[in-house]
Amino acid sequence: SGPSNEAPKPKSEFNIGWSIYAGWMPWPYAQQAGIVKKWADKYGIKINIVQVNDYVESVNQYTAGKLDGVTVANMDALTIPAAGGKDTSAIIVGDYSNGNDGVMLKGSDDLKAIKGQSVNLVELSVSHYLLARALNSVGMKLTDVKTVNTADADIVGAFASPDVKAAVAWNPQLSVMKGQAGAHEVFSSADIPGEILDLLCVDTATLKANPKLGKALAGIWYETVALMQRKDAEGQKARAAMAKLAGATPENFDSQLSTTYLYSDPKAAVAAADSPKLVTTMTLVRDFSFSKGLFNGATSADAVGMAFPGGKTLGDAQNVTLRFDDSFMKMAADGKL
Amino acid sequence: MRWVNRHVRRGEGVLLGALPILLAVLAYLVAAAQRHAQNPADKILPLPGKMADSMAALLFDADPLSGQLVFWADTLASLERLGLGIGIATLMALVVGLALGALPPVRATFGPLVTGIAVIPPIALLPILFIALGLGETAKVALIVIGIAPVMIRDITAHVSSLPREQIIKAQTLGASSWQVIIRVALPQAMPRLFHAVRLALGPAWVFLISAEAIASDVGLGYRIFLVRRYLSMDVILPYVAWIALLAIVMDLALTFVNRRMFPWAHGESH
Amino acid sequence: MRWVNRHVRRGEGVLLGALPILLAVLAYLVAAAQRHAQNPADKILPLPGKMADSMAALLFDADPLSGQLVFWADTLASLERLGLGIGIATLMALVVGLALGALPPVRATFGPLVTGIAVIPPIALLPILFIALGLGETAKVALIVIGIAPVMIRDITAHVSSLPREQIIKAQTLGASSWQVIIRVALPQAMPRLFHAVRLALGPAWVFLISAEAIASDVGLGYRIFLVRRYLSMDVILPYVAWIALLAIVMDLALTFVNRRMFPWAHGESH
Amino acid sequence: MGPWRKPLSTLLSLRNVWVEYGDRIVIEKLSLDIAAQSFVSVVGPSGAGKSSFLRLILGQEAPSQGRILLDGEPLTPECGPDRGVVFQRYSVFPHLSVLRNTMFGLECPKAPFSARLFGSARKAAREEAVAMLEAVGLGHSLDLYPAQMSGGMQQRLAIAQALVMRPRILLLDEPFGALDPGIRADMHALITKLWRDYQLTIVMVTHDIREAFSLGTRVLTLDKRRHDPHAPHRFGATVVYDLPLDKKEQLALAEQRSITVD
Amino acid sequence: MGPWRKPLSTLLSLRNVWVEYGDRIVIEKLSLDIAAQSFVSVVGPSGAGKSSFLRLILGQEAPSQGRILLDGEPLTPECGPDRGVVFQRYSVFPHLSVLRNTMFGLECPKAPFSARLFGSARKAAREEAVAMLEAVGLGHSLDLYPAQMSGGMQQRLAIAQALVMRPRILLLDEPFGALDPGIRADMHALITKLWRDYQLTIVMVTHDIREAFSLGTRVLTLDKRRHDPHAPHRFGATVVYDLPLDKKEQLALAEQRSITVD
Ligand SMILES: Nc1ncnc2c1ncn2[C@@H]1O[C@H](COP(=O)(O)OP(=O)(O)OP(=O)(O)O)[C@@H](O)[C@H]1O
Ligand SMILES: Nc1ncnc2c1ncn2[C@@H]1O[C@H](COP(=O)(O)OP(=O)(O)OP(=O)(O)O)[C@@H](O)[C@H]1O
Ligand SMILES: [Mg+2]
Ligand SMILES: [Mg+2]
Predict the structure, then answer these.
(1) CB E170 within 8 A of CB E162
(2) ipTM field
(3) Which of B2, B199, D105, D243 could form a disulfide with D165 if both were Cys (CB 3.0 to 4.6 A apart)?
(4) Cα–Cα distances in Å, from B173 out to E85, E155, E164, E194?
């Protein structure tokens, strides 16, 4: 299947949406520092890096076709565009959350104390998934707690309220919540490494018609990441600029980066994409998503098909709408950009 | 006949009024059909059949966890919050509006404060609201009240303070004290305007309700809309919005009706 | 002297009006000091010194990359959106309100549609709005317009349609057509009410502006508030909110002043 | 004014007209012809239905039963510049100054789009309006707004506004009630002159019997013919006296008046 | 009414009072004493300042210069149940029926908190109000709202509303202007009776010179003493004639009137 009966014509201007998250800050920095323009010029195209303040809205806009690509977490790529029938290619596996998401409790440092409590979190998001995995790790189920949907922007304020005893959040909010008196992180994504992946996804049809876009994006990404990883003044300057863009202090931003496992080397990213562990992870994620009714009314977890490097598929092979495409990362690894 | 003089009979009025709404519905159907012709899985403008399916599940199938019928539980929760919020705001508008409108020293003292509160966007101060009121029902009702009451108060104040001076003088020559002027002259004449103000506040009240439910909630029409917004499930959002519109229009009509019934003197053709 | 008769002189009025606002500030300071006594790192009610520090950075230090002074860039961007939004809404309120208020067949046809639009909470339809209008300025301005115009339209409609019937008749005996009744009788008498409606809409307009900027923007007062909200930086949020309130109050006063100046007939003491 | 006006053609006819508000009958079975260029005075007790009667002719209200004919055609419930009116409660435009209130009627027909005149047309209209305002004694109050005027001044403004149009049919509802005797006499002279010069048809409600007789060519009395003391609203008013006046009677009365009062 | 009322104590005195609106002088250097229990008729041209004069006594407006004394004390710019008023534009409460409008004044003083009476007190107030309404000819319209009444009916309601209070000072601004001669005569009799029985002090503005003389014990004429033809608003009005009347004159006039009109 595929969304369109007519193949999109090659075009020269593309919009890539991003929202504030530690692992995605290289994108706006690359835009400001001229790296985007450099690579776009090289391939004779124009790329606009568009900020969408609200994460959900950025993914919605991508699904609706207003953006050609978007920064998104693996679970949301599956449940929003892919489950909505939009054929999507994940061309860059940027990082995985290695403590960027966490379960917070007030007054106890034992996860088991969460039983029966109300937990504030962004429902049906990776936080929800993390909570499910956390409960699983101590032999509980989601039904053992009560979830209260809370907007991501408000979760810090909510956690400051005496009413709220438990919450699940991601960075930068999580780092502020950890600073609160009597608050304990009882479970984090570091306990399930590699399961919460942060991707750059692009519309498959657009990518097919314009492979240059994929090359330019990969070029931008790995140049910027290499720059920010440098330990010298240059690297520090780049990180400080990203911190400012994220509204954080440089120290706070560095601490966020420390819980983000950046695949700064394209080889590592290719390895992660090719690893069978990705299939296992995505199986867990899709089973959770399906159990929460996120597959658009489908009757089986197999309804949405996924393709992995090397021709492996998961779910309905006739209806593949999420493709992990390592070809551009490979080009970067091989220095062919 | 000149258009200013063309009066429309009741039956005709209903017909005429339905026309643009039907046209809007038709326009939607055409647009949706077009999008679906291009992409049969389009989520943005779902077809009626899809909406009916999704809604049927929410309407008739009990939630396995809570055992509730989701749609009705949402409606009940939202209406309760809305009713409380509008009720409190209306009461405040009446009491504060009367005091401010009828008593110049009170107006001088508290008018600027009310203006200040009216122009401060409450959603910017949510963290403070959370600390003060927690995250429960109180905070949601409070957000509605803070959102709509100042506008209503200012409207009633303006109305009461522009009552003809003669009436106030006349009441005093008839022995009325300030208190009596307020309850016998200002209050009854403020009532039709209060009804009008509530009608105008209905739209904003729903906005604040939905915002409140979007912030922290586990049931409610706004909660559901924001939850499924993550998945661009317009097949749920659109029927929910239509339902909200229907509820609001019914409230609007009921208010108009009660207003005309209770205050005939304010609506009789004068000459 | 009875309170209804106590008139407050201008100077006294300013003093009286400042009183509760000063008290509110004082209450804040006490609460903040208390919280800081318990937890010196408290972020929710920051002390004035902390706010001044944070604001100084936004006010005077240029952003290294863009070279802009953040605070002023935010203010400019927001005011532009707000101005456009309120301007368009006001114009719509005037044109549509006059047509609906003065021409019964138009009112019968489009009144229900306007009511429908008025009661649909626009934030529930944000996805559609942004999809239809893109993520640029248009969508933000449109959200403000959709948010405030219907209430304003309904207010002007109600005002115009309750103009004394005698005036309409009188104008026709003086040879006026429907069009002339609208522009020479209804329009000028709707103007003072329009100013009032804009004043009442200021608060909601800021709410919608902030909501729009919270979702899709990269500059603006609302954007900044939502950006730093992730860090619970009340030391930035509170000054920003105070600044918004100040801007709004200045607009409110300016509107009141212009209204009195331009339409003396509507404000002169009548007897 | 005089008998040569009498046999002129019928301008307005009311045929078996009723006016009801809910179950309250105000006007009952009223049939009446009004000749062109007549000056009809209407008198009757307070609440009888005189203002309602004027509203019928004005087209502001439609009768609940019966027909009204203007020049033999059914009257559309709508009024135009052929009919002028001074309402009982002086209703002038509160947002226009005295001068603009009076110029309004001169501007509308000539400027269909903007309803405002410019240049020489404006100057001419202004002069005409000022002349009329001077005739009603408001020559020195051109720039006042209605809220700044006394009751009598607003009344005179309403009169000037209607007269400057020289309508075919002029409807006056107690137009001189709020005026002092001096100004009232000036107004009588003014209206008589305009009536004669422009061949208007005038219907005037008044409570001043002498005024009714001195100005009118015909005096109508509206009152209830039957009374139910327990439900007075069950019967409506109709014409109980209809006196055509000839010139002599009028002159005599006018003279008597000027002796008694002035 | 008669000369025995004349030498009574001064109730109200105005000392060098001015009323100005911006640069428009309305009342200029007015000094005047009004005796208790007198019936003062005020006449004068339209726009002279008669209504402004009443507003001064009422306390609705403060003079821009000068002092007003009531019983020798400075008048607070506030009015209470000791003063009653009928405004020129009949101003009744639009949200109350005829009966409730009239009962209002009876309820307020007796029920400070609720401003409503219940039980027998209510019945008594109702009876008193109905009696007064019958006296002004509105006995059959108890449940109408002002918007459903004719101009004259609203005027009579305003009169009933004021009279039912029997205030010490009653201020009437053209109270009988909108009434037909029959009802007007009834009203004259009513007001004279109440004035005599309750020893009221009445100040009445009227345009009917005969009414002024037949009812009043004193007739004041307010007018400008000086005129600047180019800037008429630069001079204000003051009392130009002040005629105390004795009983004989009044009776004669009253008789003449009943012959001429009825
Ligand atoms: N608010 C105001 N601003 C300016 N002038 C005013 C204002 N109110 C009244 N006036 C002027 O004061 C003068 C006196 O008005 P007032 O109503 O007292 O007259 P009056 O003697 O009662 O006249 P009438 O017999 O017509 O009722 C008028 O010339 C009027 O123009
Ligand atoms: N909207 C209405 N509803 C009910 N009754 C009404 C309404 N309007 C007028 N009436 C009644 O119609 C009757 C006639 O009113 P109208 O104004 O024609 O009297 P009028 O002869 O002009 O009296 P006046 O001399 O006092 O002005 C009155 O008894 C009044 O109560
Ligand atoms: Mg009448
Ligand atoms: Mg007057």
Answers:
(1) yes
(2) 0.88
(3) D105
(4) 7, 17, 12, 18
Report how far residue A296's alpha carbon sits from residue C143's, in angstroms, rounded to the nearest whole number.
28
Q: At D176, which CATH number?
A: 3.40.50.300
* Residues B41 and B168 placed together within one structural domain of the fold: no
Contact E213, E252 (CB under 8 A): no
User: Could you give the count of Cα atoms lying within 13 Å of A209 in the half-sphere of its Cβ?
Assistant: 14
D197, amino acid identity: D
CB E202 within 8 A of CB E191: yes
Q: What proportions of chain D, in percent to the nearest 5, are helix, strand and coil?
A: 40, 25, 35
Q: Single out the residue of A242, A227, A202, A243 nearest to residue A65, CA to CA.
A: A202
How many beta-carbon pairs below 8 A join chains C and E? 8
List, for residues B65-77, the tens digit of each pLDDT value. Answer: 667 788 999 999 9
Same domain, E71 and E98: no
Which residue has tokens 């005026």?
D179
- In tens, the pLDDT along B156-208 reads 999 999 999 899 999 999 999 999 999 999 999 999 999 999 999 999 999 99
CA distance B243 to B249: 10
Q: How remote is the CA of residue A259 from the centroid of ligand 3, in Å? A: 86
- Whether residue D1 is contained in a domain is answered as no
Select the more confidently predicted residue: A292 or D107.
D107
Of C126, C227, C229, the CB nearest to A157: C229
Contact A29, B201 (CB under 8 A): no
> Which of A115, A108, A70 is closest to A89 using CA atoms?
A70
Instruction: Give the distance, in angstroms, between the CA of residue C199 and the centroid of all CA atoms in the same chain.
Output: 6
Answering whether pTM is above 0.95, one says no
Residues C186, C104 contacting (CB under 8 angstroms):
no
The H or E element that residue A47 is part of is strand A46-51
Phi-psi region of E86 (alpha: psi -120 to 50; beta: other; left: phi over 0): beta
User: Which of D166, D185, D203 is the endpoint of a domain?
Assistant: D166
Q: Which two structure tokens, joined as six digits, stand for B172? A: 């005093």
Asked if A75 and A123 touch (Cβ cutoff 8 Å), the reply is: no
In the block, which residue shows the tokens 């002719």? D57
Going by C-alpha positions, the residue among B150, B155, B133 that lies closest to residue B142 is B133
Quick one: D69 and D182 in the same domain?
yes
The per-residue DSSP string of C211-258 comes to HHHHHS-SSSHHHHHHHHHTTT-HHHHHHHHHHHHHHHHHHHHHHHHH
Write the DSSP assignment of D81-140 as a string of letters. Answer: TTEEEE-SS----TTS-HHHHHHHHHHHHH-TTTS---HHHHHHHHHHHHHHHHHTT-TT
Kind of pairing, strands A69-73 and A197-203?
A: antiparallel
Give the least confident one: C69-83, D116-130, D237-251: D237-251
C-beta D24 within 6 A of ligand 2 = yes
Contact check, Cβ <8 Å, D161/C174 = yes
Rounded CA separation C195/E174 (Å): 37
Q: How far is CA B52 from CA B26, B46, D175, in A?
A: 17, 10, 67
- Quick one: closest CA in B to E111, which residue? B180
Distance CA E157, CA E151 (A): 10
Contacts of E12 (CB under 8 A, 6+ apart): E32, E33, E34, E57, E68, E69, E70, E75, E169, E201
E strand or H helix that includes residue C11: helix C10-38
C219 is in which domain, residue-wise?
48-267
- Residue B146: count of CB within 10 angstroms of its CB: 20
Whether the CB of E49 sits within 6 Å of ligand 1: yes
Q: How many domains does chain E have?
A: 2
Distance E50 CA to ligand 1 centre (A): 8
Query: What is the C-alpha separation between D219 and D225, in angstroms, rounded?
Result: 17
Cis peptide, bond prior to residue E181, ω within 30 of zero: no
- Euclidean distance between CA atoms A256 and A254, whole angstroms: 5
